[in-house]
Amino acid sequence: MRLRKLDLTRYGKFTDYSLDFGEAVAGTPDLHIVYGLNEAGKSTAFAAYLDFLFGIEERSRFNFLHPYSAMQIGACLDFNGTERKLVRTKQRTNSLLDEHGQPVNETLLGMPLAGLGRDAYRTMFSLDERSLEDGGNAIIQSKGDLGELLFSASAGLAGLSQTLDATAGEANLIHKKRGRNTHLAELKQTLVNLKAQRDEIDTFASIHSHLIATYKQAQSSYGEAMGDLGNSRTKHSELARIMRALPLAAEHARLTSQFAVFADLPRPPTDWASELPQLTKDQTRIQTQIDGVEKELARLQAEIDLIDVDEQLEPVADRILGLEDGRARFRTAENDLPRRRVALAEHEAALSIILASLEQTDNKTPEALLLPASLIGALRDLIETRSGLDATLQTATRELTRAKQLVDRAAEENAKFATTGGVLDQAATAPIETALTKLQSTDHQARLRVSERDRGQLARNYENLLSNLRPWTGDGTALHAIAPPEARQIESWRSEALLVEKRLRGHKERLRDLITQQRDAQARIEAIQAAAGLIDDAKAQQSREARTKAWDEHLAHLDITTAQVFEQKMRTDDDLNDARLARSRDLAELRQLTQTLAVHASAIVREEELLVEADAERLQLSTRIRKATPLAIEWPEDRSAEDWLSYLERWSSGRKATLVAWNALQQVDEDIAQARAEFGNEVAALVDAMRVAGVEGVETLSAAGLMQAAGALLSQAVSLRAERATAATNLLERQRELAERQQDFTDADKAAKLWDGNWRDALAKTWFETNAPTVAEVREILKALADLPATLRERDQMAQRIATMENDRNAFQAEVGHILKKLGEIFDPAQCVAEAEALTIRYDASQRAHQFHSIKMDEYARLLETRRGLEQELAVHEARKTALTTFFGVETLSDVSNKLEQVAEKQRFERRIVELSDQIVGELRSTTFGAAEELLAQVNVSQIETEAAELSARVDNLEERTKLLFADLTRAKDKVEQVGGDGAVARIELQRRTVLLEIEDLAQKYLRLRTGAMAAENALHLYRDRHRSSMMKRASEAFRRITRGEYSGLAAKPEKDKEILIGVPRQGGSKMSDAMSTGTQFQLYLALRLAGYQEFAQVRPSVPFIADDIMETFDEPRSEEVFRLLAEMAKIGQVIYLTHHRHLCEIAQKVVPTVRIHELGVDTSHSPRNAPERMKPSLVLG
Questions:
Q1: Per-residue pLDDT for 1061 more than 50?
Q2: Alpha carbon of 661 to those of 194, 482, 651, 1062: distances in Å?
Q3: Is the peptide bond before 471 cis (omega within 30 degrees of 0)?
Q4: Are 663 and 741 in the same domain?
Q5: Residues 405 and 540 both lie in one domain
Q6: What are the pLDDT digits (tens) for 913-928?
Q7: Which SUPFAM superfamilies match (predicted)?
Q8: Beta bridge partners of 1050
Q9: Strand 1058-1065 to strand 1156-1159: parallel, antiparallel, or no bridges (unpaired)?
């Protein structure tokens, strides 16, 4: 398919515009460049082309000028020589019309496009700066994988590597070998937790009824104990409040007796205490300030009386002030007039010198000698032009003679080549050039160097990996025959071993804890017995039985002896009961510890039995693992099962890595043999071609020597042919130069004669024309005349300045005389300056005296105002002082201060008495202080202290007992709640089934992701194997040409289960694609895309390929190579390049003369007049 014409009828910024690409010319590249400035509409035109093929988008952004209903795009397409004119409109159905406006089936475009959609076309058959950058990034992300790069270049999918990595990452999140944070691992752990929860709460009915009874008994005991504790605490609290109130009442009585001293003291306002210090300070401050102001007023009055103001100068003050400027001009005139008169004489002398140089000494009107500026300019221009004309004429004469000599020599050289033979023609050297180019462009040598270098690395890698398997020894074949246990079996064993080890550790830890707790309980029992004696229940029972037996004996005999024995046994029993009652808390703890000791003894026996069972299971597991392990893998006797499984897993992983390295070593050996064979065939082809051309003795040369000899032969043939063509071209060039030099000589002679006429006309307008001066004489006359205007102007200006200075001096003398006459004083003209200075000094002194007098008067007025303010402030202060002293009946402020201190002391007593009363009432919870006082009077202090001590001990015992009972209650309640009766087991089972369904869904998703990724990788491998040969050669050659030989081509390097694309620099060696510079990566991706397009065009009909300014960052040499490659693409299918750089158009014209350039946005009728034909725009008004 080919785009013949694109009509932008109503689309975007365009209205009735057409872009005509013309008909394809057989045998020439179908390459077009659409040139336009920024915002000219290049991207709009490309979008319109896509909208024409696939329909205008639902929400198109190109409706800003034309509404959706009016949008229309037309095109003329060429299908294998048949042209079809179609129109696309914006509507949901039947949007594709023929030239008559009838709907057309979309399959008309679908068949040539081979099923491509909009995105696929944009991806595969267009290229812009963004996709070029994405392609360079894809080279880095794929890490040079050959399959990915070839496929992404053909399909234009720069993000293929990211997609495959994302797929693998998503699968690893679901499940990963030995991974503990994957989704499946978390769900499996959830199942384990649910099973543990069910086992914990699923309890039999008999056990449940026992737990309920235990819980009710514990609840009843705890309630009774809490009631006793509450009553005891309440009684103890009441006694404590009374004991706290007793010392408060004593202090209250003491303060009340002391308060009677202040009964007659009056109560002043509250702010007097803070006001008194300031009043004391103000009394001293105000009097001090008044005294200071009086002294300042006396001093100022004395200074004012001494000031003398000259009032006589006021009428002439303005004229005296104006003398300063006149005096300066008078002094300037006195100083400058002698120099100015000397300068005027110098100007007159300079004028005389100029007139003498012009031979006009007697001329009285030198102004008449001046010439117009236009005439001077014309004469100077003619003078300057004359030297150039003379030089041009001489040069033209000399060049004409030299050109005649060069034509003669070129004719001799051309005649010599015409008689010389023995130069190989193009047909004779073409086979040699083809064979040499093929040999140089292939990557066999690079592959051979890379493979041989890689073989050493692979061999070392293989030996290192093999050494990691020691003590096992052997080669790859023997290693392949060993079948170690699978990873799943190892993982199963590890899980089983971990469970056994976990059980062993758990039993050991619990056994250690039980023994520790048993010893701790025994130690606490012994400590209680050592502190409290034998107060346990057994000792109490023995004492009770002994007392009963003594009573029975006494009843039987009723004598003194049995009575004394009974009395002793009874006292012993009472003492024991008293001790048990006093030590009730220790007794309860002793009972609890005895029970705990029995429980711990039973638990220790059970843990020891379980520990023996777990150790037996560990031994059985080690035996099973040893039987399932191949005999080639040595079994270390001193290792645990977990250590052995880790060793076995590492050995299996090392075996896999070693086998991979062994296979890679075998593969690189095969590649070396293949590269040597293919390289030998191409060397043989070059030898045959040189032998046919008549070159002998090349069979014994090495490959490098053979290529050097072939290159030298081709260079010599080309050089000789070039020299012969150069000689003929040189003769024609010399003959053309001879004609040009003849014309130059004629033009120079004509220009010299024209100058002579202009010279005579210019001299006729001057006063010195009668002397017929030469060019040199006129140049000197003009030079002398150049200084005449300035000299005349300076002379006249100097005379004017002298007259002005004399006028200024006379005016100043007259002004000074007038002022002195007004003052009645005598004026001496000889002392004019001194008189003026004296007047100025006298006036300045008078002004200073007047100003000083005003300042002092203002200061005196301010001090008077200050004194009046201080006197008023003192009166207010005295009134306030009188109010304070009268209130207390004292004379001074110091006495007032003493009275205020007594008032403050009285207030402190009052506040403390009130606080004590409130505290006593609050402690005793009475309504009034009198009731509280009456209650305290009836209290027996010693009795209350005794009762409070007894209650404190009882509260402590009851608190300890409630803690123990609460612990029993909590344990019983927890056990009952753990059983539950609300369907918790059913809910857990429902959660378990839900988790199983989630595991099933994730497993299916994991399989889909893994199989999809494996299918994509296999497809990439197949695509690589199928297209590597042809596409690699095209990409290698394109890359070599784009880089101008900096890289000799591309090669493939095997690595594990894939091949890596590498570049082969011109200096030798290799460079990974991700190690290239950013610009080189872009050019590599471009080479792959160009090769991919040619690969695609071989199996499908070609479609237009569109590139949008992809050479923004390319230099000019590489841009030339890219245009050459685009021209080769254009021989297969239509290629359209969009750009806003005019220099790229010029480069394209230079490289591909037949390129057609279309200038966007300019009417054909207004194209530049001097523009080349192929640069005229093809965008015409419709």
A1: yes
A2: 46, 16, 15, 20
A3: yes
A4: no
A5: no
A6: 788 888 888 877 788 8
A7: P-loop containing nucleoside triphosphate hydrolases
A8: 1063
A9: unpaired
> 578 to each of 225, 524, 818, how far by Cα in Å?
21, 22, 140
| C-alpha to C-alpha distance for 1032 and 442, rounded to whole angstroms | 10
In eight-state DSSP terms, residue 300 is H
Using an 8 Å Cβ cutoff, are 74 and 86 in contact?
Answer: yes
- Nearest residue to 34 (alpha-carbon basis) of 1139, 790, 1155, 1168: 1139
Q: Which of 500, 497, 519, 516 is nearest to 610 (CA)?
A: 500
DSSP secondary structure string for all residues of 573-617? HHHHHHHHHHTHHHHHHHHHHHHHHHHHHHHHHHHHHHHHHHHHH
If one counts the domains in the chain, the total is: 6
Per-residue pLDDT tens for 376-396? 787 778 777 877 777 788 888
Whether residue 821 sits in one domain with residue 726: no
C-alpha–C-alpha distance, residues 684 and 702, integer Å: 11
Cα pseudo-dihedral 552, 555, 558, 559, rounded to 10: 0
Residue 189 belongs to a domain: no
Q: What are 509's two structure tokens?
A: 């830890």
Alpha helices by DSSP H, 764-831: 775-823
Single out the residue of 1141, 1130, 1159 nearest to residue 31, CA to CA.
1130
Using DSSP bridges, classify how beta strands 1105-1108 and 31-35 pair: parallel, antiparallel or unpaired.
unpaired
1069: Cβ–Cβ under 8 A, 6 or more apart, which residues?
Answer: 449
Which residue type occupies 184? L
**CA 1114/CA 1137 separation, integer angstroms:** 15
CB 629 within 8 A of CB 635: yes
DSSP structural state of residue 702: -
Same domain, 664 and 794: no
With respect to residue 74, please indicate whether it lies within any of the assigned structural domains.
no
Last residue of a domain, which of 952, 975, 998?
975
3-state secondary structure 152-165: HHHHCCCCHHHHHH
Handedness of CA 716, 719, 725, 727 (dihedral sign): negative
pLDDT, tens only, 33-64: 999 988 888 889 999 999 999 899 888 889 88
Domain shared by 525 and 593, yes or no: yes
**Cα gap 222→216, rounded to integer Å:** 10
Last residue of a domain, one of 948, 975, 1002: 975
Q: Facing residues of 6 across strands?
A: 19, 75
Does this model's pTM top 0.70? My answer is no
Please name every residue paired with 32 in a beta bridge, in sequence order, or none if there are none. Answer: 1136, 1156
518 domain residue, yes or no: yes
Q: Is 395 helix (H, G, I), strand (E, B) or coil?
A: helix
Q: Are residues 649 and 637 in the same domain?
A: no
Instruction: Assess whether 500 and 629 both reside in one domain.
Output: yes
Q: Output the CA torsion sign for 879, 885, 891, 897.
A: negative
**Nearest-angstrom CA–CA distance, 1147 and 442:** 29
- Cα 1147 to Cα 33, 35, 429, 554, 926, distances in angstroms: 11, 13, 30, 141, 113
121 belongs to a structural domain? no
> What is the C-alpha separation between 1025 and 1028, in angstroms, rounded?
5
The residues, any chain, with a CB within 8 Å of residue 143's CB and separated by 6 or more, are 161, 1060, 1074
Q: Is 27 left (phi over 0), alpha (psi -120 to 50) or beta?
A: left
Q: Is 6 helix (H, G, I), strand (E, B) or coil?
A: strand
Q: How confident is the model at residue 1175 (pLDDT cuts 50, 70, 90)?
A: very low
CB atoms inside a 10 Å sphere around CB 187: 15
Could you tell me if 569 and 508 lie in one domain?
yes
Long-range contacts of 216-222, Cβ-Cβ distance < 8 Å, separation of 24 or more: 218/965, 218/968, 218/969, 218/972, 219/969, 219/972, 221/965, 221/968, 221/969, 222/962, 222/965, 222/966, 222/968, 222/969
The continuous run of DSSP H or E covering 3 comes out as strand 2-11
- What Å distances lie between residue 1047 and 706, 794, 1062, 1112, CA to CA? 22, 78, 10, 21
Range of the domain at 667: 430-482+643-692
